[in-house]
Amino acid sequence: MWVTVYMGYQQAPPPGPGGEGPDQRSSRIALAVAVPLSVFLAVLLCLATGIALTMMVVHTGGSGEEAPPAAESEEPGPEKEEAEEESDEEDEERASGRRGPAEHEVPPSSYDGTSTWSGNFRVECETAYTDTTITDGMGSSQTAPSGSEFHIYRLHVTNEGDVPDLFDTVGTTATTTDGRELTHDEEAEWTVAWDYFGDDIDPGQTVTTYVVLTAPEGTQFAEVRIGGSAVLEPRT
Q1: For residue 56, what are the contacts with CB-CB under 8 A and spacing of at least 6?
Q2: Are 167 and 226 in contact (CB under 8 A)?
Q3: Cα–Cα distances in Å, from 204 out to 60, 84, 113?
Q4: Where do the H-state alpha helices sit in 70-207?
Q5: What DSSP letter does each residue of 170-206 carry, written as one string?
Q6: Triad 115, 200, 190: Cα angle to 5°
Q7: Which residue has the higher pLDDT, 17 or 155?
Q8: How far is Cα 3 from Cα 150, in angstroms, rounded to an integer?
Q9: How confident is the model over 52-94, as pLDDT tens digits?
């Protein structure tokens, strides 16, 4: 339903002398309101822009670009730690002159035909074997304790020097394949090689003697050090 309202037109009275009409007053009022409002809106826009820029700077760590992710620190895993430990053990063994436990079987026969040097003496292992009893073949014998056996190394010793010299097995040691160190059995050696102790060996002369160690049955040796220094190693 439409309702039409009719208002009669009434002409505004003309401005009086020196005065202003209604339209001029309205324009002046509108101008007075519009200018401060424009300034207020401009200030508000600047504030909003500044706040937005500040938030962006804070979020990106002081620049307009995202900061790269921090590099993750590399932590050694179990395999790396194990490799480092093995390397340290190998370095320690090299520094001390020790060999580590053998990684394979080392029966006494592995020493057959091996040789080393002890000063001017060339030492050759003719044969190596184990037994629970040793004898000199002339009535002197000895039996190993229960659960043990003798490791017997039959040696040919040659004086390669220019003067008579004494060959001595005192201080002989052997390292087992599981890393234990044993000393030779001097009493057992005396039983089988008494006639070679205490006499000088002339230049060029070769004598046969023995090194004997007493060890639990089944023991294997990774190396033997004649006199504590001349290393006799098994054949690989």
Answers
A1: 64
A2: no
A3: 88, 49, 20
A4: 78-96, 186-193
A5: TT-EEEETTS-EEE--HHHHHHHHGGGTT-EE-TT-E
A6: 70
A7: 155
A8: 134
A9: 655 655 455 444 455 455 555 555 555 656 656 655 655 554 4
181-183 and 230-232 strand pairing: unpaired
- How far apart CA 136 and CA 40 sit, in angstroms, is 122
Rounded CA-CA distance 197/200 in Å is 9
Distance of alpha carbon 60 from its chain centroid, rounded?
Answer: 40
- pLDDT tens track for 120-151: 999 999 999 999 999 887 878 999 999 999 99
Note whether 200 and 209 are within 8 A (CB).
no
What six digits make up the tokens of 73? 């620190």
CA distance 1 to 84: 98
In terms of pTM, does the model score above 0.70? no
